[in-house]
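STRUCTURE:
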């Protein structure tokens, strides 16, 4: 979806690929870590683009924000397509995080198109949902890492 598109983001996502990594810890390292790094970089870009700058025009501001949110939306969709995590709780938490991130990015794009308070309110609400999903994912990841370090003697 380009920044000039007026179509809403699709609400369905493709099913994740079957699990290709045997343990949750290996999945986190091999599959989730690179995708999560991209999403974190995208979030930093969205935050930077959303900062008010008196030196740029309104159109430029929204174009930069749209660009950052478009990248985030693409990476959130890629996160949905990762091979399924070999743990039910991890798979569920990952998909919830990816869904919340895609919604956040889509709501950001709505702000860049409409410039409306309603869209801004939805974007703020989706930020809260994305943060909640991240906290839940982090909790699952911490438990997996803790279990992994206790079984490896570390």
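SEQUENCE:
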């Amino acid at each position: 979806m380009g920044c000039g598109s007026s179509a809403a983001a699709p609400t369905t996502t493709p099913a994740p690929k079957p699990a290709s990594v045997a343990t949750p810890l290996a999945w986190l390292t091999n599959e989730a870590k690179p995708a999560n790094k991209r999403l974190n970089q995208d979030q930093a870009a969205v935050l930077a683009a959303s900062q008010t700058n008196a030196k740029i025009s309104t159109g430029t501001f929204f174009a930069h924000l749209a660009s950052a949110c478009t990248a985030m939306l693409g990476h959130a969709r890629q996160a949905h397509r990762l091979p399924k995590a070999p743990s039910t709780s991890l798979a569920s938490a990952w998909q919830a995080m990816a869904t919340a991130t895609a919604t956040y990015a889509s709501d950001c794009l709505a702000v860049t198109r409409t410039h409306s308070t309603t869209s801004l309110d939805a974007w703020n609400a989706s930020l809260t949902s994305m943060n909640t999903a991240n906290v839940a994912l982090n909790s699952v990841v911490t438990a997996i890492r803790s279990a992994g370090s206790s079984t490896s003697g570390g």
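REMARK: The chain has four helices and no strands.
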